[in-house]
What does this fold into?
Amino acid sequence: MNEDNKNNMDKNYNSDTVKKYLALLKIIATMENRLSWSEFIYSFLNIIVLFFIIGLTFYLTDNQRQIPFFIWSISPLLCIVVGETLCVYWVISSMRIQLKLKLRYFQARGLERKMNSIGEYIISEEFIFFDSNIKVIESFDKKETVEYPSTGTVRMDGFAGSVKPRHLSWILPVLFFLIYCIFFIWTVLQVIAI
It folds into this structure.
């Protein structure tokens, strides 16, 4: 009788763990999707602001005599500040989502260890795929293999293979921010020249 109760408790315990694990995987997928869409939206907004600044700057430069000096000098600078603020918010929101993802991955690895299904970890054993010493990975039933590049910049732990969303979350906003700074300096130099 005691053994049956223990087996039932183990089944319920494992069932609850599997449910939590599946819910966690769904949360991780949703957060990764949110991160990729937010990257796309922030890039799109920055491109719109950048084209608006370029168009406004050329329009104001061509019609410099007809437009009051205050409007001509301040309006591009305000647009540049909007673009820079957008870049800062982009970095902050991406970092926040990535920190939450890091926590969810940590929780998923803990649940995988708790389920103790050796050889079938989805998140815990991901590092195997990024080891440059391992060129071919074989499935547990020996029916399928996957080959990864192990040399050059495209290897899994190389320049192209190691690019992760967090790198893009820093590189793209910094690139846009630098472009805005260049426009800021150019606008200030144009105002000083007059």
